[in-house]
Fold:
Amino acid sequence: MFEQLDALLLARIQFAFTVSFHFIFPAFSIGLASYLAVLEGLWLKTGKSIYLDLFKYWLKIFAIAFAMGVVSGIVMSYQFGTNWSKFSDIAGPVIGPLMAYEVLTAFFLEAGFLGVMLFGMNKVGKKLHFAATLMVAIGTFISAFWILSVNSWMQTPVGYEIGANGQYLPGESWWDIVFNPSFPYRLVHTVIAAYLTTAFVVGGGGAWHLLKDRTNLHARKMFSMAMWMAAIVAPIQIFAGDMHGLNTLEHQPQKVMAMEGHYESHPNGAPLILFGIPNSEEKRVDYAIEIPKASSLILKHDLNAPLAGLDTIPDDEEPPVGIVFWSFRIMVGIGFAMLGIGAWSLFARFRKKLYDWPLLHKAALVMAPSGFIAVLAGWITTEVGRQPYVIYNLLRTADAASPLDAPAVAASLLAFVIVYFVVFGAGVWYILHLMHKPPHAGEYGVKRGDTGPIRTAGITPGPSQNPGDPDTLPRDHEEATDGR
Amino acid sequence: MDVNVDLTTIWAFIIAFAVFAYVVMDGFDLGIGILFPTFDVGPERDRAMNSIAPVWDGNETWLVLGGGGLFAAFPLAYAVILPATYPLIIAMLLGLVFRGVAFEYRWRDPGHRRYWDAAFTGGSLVAAMAQGMTLGALLQGIEVVDRSYAGSWFDWFTPYTLLTGLGTVAVYALLGATWLVWKLEGDSQHHARSLAKKAAWSTLVLMGGVSLYNVFLNAEYAERWLTAPEIYFAAPVPILTAVIAIALLRALSVDRHSKPFWLSIALFFFGMAGLGVTMWPYVVPPGLTIWDAAAPERSQIFMLVGVAITMPLIIAYTAWAYWVFRGKVADEGYH
Structure:
């Protein structure tokens, strides 16, 4: 009995670990693919080389992030079968086809055009190359579409029948399954999150280079574009998140109860608990700082509207409150911090100090990785918040796992942890190394080979430190510190 | 063999096609990884890498279609095979992680390039071996009780699966070497050709070994291959395989460029057709036929519409991407 429980917990940790690591990369590459498409489009439209330089600067980073996303994504497509075989058998007829559509309409599109996007500029010409970039960007969006449809169906399952063999079978309409009740909200919220995440990485990179050299035109352009995104998209995201929350209240009320820390029902308007420490033993929030009736105002648009609490839910159907409560606050806190940076940048623009305000640049630098933290916190909120179910109200997580023994799952978990930290640690390091170099005129693209001088058409090479590729880490590490 | 052409049969062929496409296309990528240590450090390695850099990601996507397609069309098979071969699948995935990132990392970090080259080879070798052993574990049979894997931890580890694993490594090496014969020139091409000859002989020996083993492994398999009327359907497969093997060895002994690659694919196609004849109509021998494991008709139809629309497009733009990077790999690589 205990062994079974341990294997289950290990399988859950393994899924949480592999999917969290994986999602970091698409969260970045969905936004970056679109940013690259915008940059290349602006270059084609205006003919200004600064856009091409920025395109090539970020393309190198995109190549690394995309490779990490691909290899960690393949792991995910097999995790369902290796660790959650009961789930795969039972839910396969409904969600399997959606995932097959993701492969057919998104993965092939991205992968098929990626080679041309990375290496094909001189082979296919500008316009076809731009088309390839667009295909990759569209592919990342289509991929998000299908996988979020799958996830949303697991949160708000509709349109299914239960077969004689215990499987969930598709009902009359696939439309109902694909466009299940929480899907539109989750899709909008997640895709905007990816754009914001990328905007803050780009903005942080720009801010870093402005702090070193505020006259760098490429850094200025980068920073300015990112701050427009922050100023415009952060408020939209807060609105979209609010809509998503209302949708969750309608379909998964106990998730919202956990997010809000509402152990008790409030018949005459529920308070908004800003901070506090959820105490699951005593079923209350200790040291709560709360605004009376504000939760009812937000969730029901009425100060005195009654709101049910976890006391209305059987104990064995409650999600873990502490994790959901905290991760939700982290996400929301970062969202408002992003809004603040966006507003600050507008003010700086108004005062004509956008490139000349080190404090703003420092703040943007600090916020550079905030998008990743926010998206992970958001996913933790929604995934932990639907527990103890893997398919909401239908299939418990405990009934979904593979018939594996704990040592097998523990060994594979350990292997994933070691490999991921080594491999993706190195990849993140390489990305940071590329971002550390200032963007400049005559930026190199993605190159392969350091066997001879490589010239990108029409561009004078920079001073040669390494034969070939100046964006690689120097062979000699001491040289690296001296060089800067 | 009675073949009812129904949706389930169509789906079995679609999955088989995805697996074949994967094994051929990522096969030559992985084969180059397996052969990588035999290439000289410097231009020879760079050229070998550059010959697949623009296409490896698309090639690997067929693996996701094979896995995802199996999940969608035969969910029960997916739910049984993966736990049964758990350590192999995990090893394959981790191997593919190392292999995949090495494409980018080796260029970014010349100081540690030899480590990423080693990761490229190690990852490719582990992935190839694990895939071959998974195939062997499937062919030798998986114990299923009550819609779940019911065997023990190491059922997948037998002399037979080691043989299928090595056979897969040899086939991939052959595909990789003949791809390089096509894409390289000069000394590197000569080197690739000599590797291809060794890989071809290894492949033939191991394919023969697996075939003999299949006939003795399982009475039902033997019956299929050795008695009438089945033998009339089955016999052309080994005969054609032998004809192609001879043509391949001849093509490698003269100065051919693309022909050995295409003959290797043909050789491999008949090898897989042979396995298909051996397994049919089971998706998980000895208990689950394709009909036992099939998704309901609604799922099959929904996906078939998607396949019918997207597959021609996928093949078209994949072919275009290969066309863009056609010809011999130049010294300086792509830029």
Summary: The mean pLDDT of chain B is 86. Chain B touches chain A through 76 residues (CB under 8 Å). The beta strands of chain B are 144-145, 148-149, 282-284, 288-289.
